[in-house]
Amino acid sequence: MTTTNKILKGVLVKINPSKEELDSIGEFVKKFITEFEKKLTEQKIIAEVFVGGSYAKKTMIKKGLYDVDVFVRFDGKYIGKDISGLVEKTIKKIKGTGKISRIHGSRDYFKIEPAERNFFLEIIPVIKVKNPKDAENITDLSYFHVNYIRKKLKTSKMLDEIRLAKAFCHANKCYGAESYIGGFSGYALELLIIYYKSFLGFVKAVAKLKDKQIIDIEKLYKNKLEINMDMNSAKMISPIVLIDPTYKGRNALAALSKETFDDFKEVCKKFLKNPSEKAFEVKKFDLEKIKKNAEKNKNEFLLLEAKTEKQEGDVAGSKLVKFYRHFAGELNKFYEVKEKGFEYSGKKEAEYFFVIKNKGEVIFSGPETKDKKENINRFKQRHKNVFEKKGRLYAREKNDKKIRDWTKDWMNANAQKMIEMGINEIRIEN
């Protein structure tokens, strides 16, 4: 057995949920579904309930908090009706389920958090369709996804390979199709392992990927030209285009951003060069260590907490990460950003840290000298030390502010912009 295989074997022991955890989840889910189906029957609602996601496919990895997807599949006669409302009404008829939250989205769904449990349920209303192309909502395809993966994953070895991939991506903050992550969904990772045959096969392929990769597992298209002609261009921008084997008009990796993929590619290269179990461990930023190193290297350290009033989850996370990137860009005009980090709580707040070095002097590029007079005047009003070079105006600005002072001034000057971006509070932490 090679060193890498020994490492992966050790990882599997750590990432597999215990029998006790799975039994606890299974017992609760079974009881909930029984009660839910009973209430549906009482209301004469025609719908079937099925469990989806990693729990149903047996590809769940060990986490502090587990999530279980429960789909309520409504008969076609409910097309156009408020099926989210019907689900909410039914849930509220069941006693003792726990805290219930309505999550707004393209179709509202519900989160149930049982008291003193390490898991929660997401109750997702979908419409029963015979053909995936008739789906009103992406969640309507979930039934087909579960069945496809179950048929393909018939050995425990393949299940282990998928768990390794999920744990690796989770540890390296690229697991999830949410827009603030821009990573790999669980379903996409399952498909990628089916295609590459193993976790190592997947990592090796990503590490050496140079151009956009198009993967069509079931060969639903004759060639790449047909894919380009048939598929919406907006769905083709991801670094890997993964044709959904249950519906060829969908890219299962459309949410994968170039930024997340580039970071993941480097992680894959590092792992192949130096395999370690630590690559599968979720890393928390050691802020004290980062701060001490910054001071040691005569850099400045800035730690911020940003808050939003937007709905927790994908909406709040997206607002917080968008502002983080915007603020980092603003910082970069005056400071050299040596290191930075974003940590989202999953609720309505996030922490940002920056290690920076003052550039001292900044040159701003302005309009050409032949530009409109109003544009030239506006530039001169914004900047004091303006000079001309090769038919263009430039401004030289000195910055002797400490980062905390600069940040306070920036927040005061951009208070309205912060509100427009969905950020209602920023606090500079010690």
Kindly describe this structure:
The protein is α+β, with helices and mostly antiparallel strands and 430 residues long. The protein has 3 domains: 17-149, Beta Polymerase, domain 2 (2-Layer Sandwich); 153-283, Poly(a)-polymerase, middle domain (Orthogonal Bundle), CATH 1.10.1410.30; 287-360 and 399-429, Poly(A) polymerase predicted RNA binding domain (Alpha-Beta Plaits). Helices cover 42% and strands 22% of the residues. It has 15 helices and 14 strands. It has helices spanning 3-15, 19-42, 53-57, 83-91, 142-152, 156-171, 186-196, 199-207, 224-230, 258-273, 287-296, 314-334, 373-382, 403-413, 415-420, and strands at 47-52, 66-74, 99-103, 109-113, 119-127, 213-215, 240-242, 300-308, 335-344, 349-358, 361-368, 386-389, 392-398, 423-429. A 5-stranded mixed β-sheet has the order 1-2-5-4-3, sandwiched between helices. Strand 9 (335-344) and strand 10 (349-358) form a beta hairpin. The protein is globular and about 75 Å long. The two termini are 49 Å apart. The model has no long low-confidence stretch (mean pLDDT 91).
Distance between the termini: 49 Å
Q: What is the SS-derived class?
A: alpha+beta
Tally the helices: what do you get?
15
CATH architecture heading of the largest domain: 2-Layer Sandwich
CATH structural class of the largest domain: Alpha Beta
Q: CATH homologous superfamily of the largest domain - what is it?
A: Beta Polymerase, domain 2
Main β sheet profile: 5 strands, mixed
- Low-confidence stretches are none
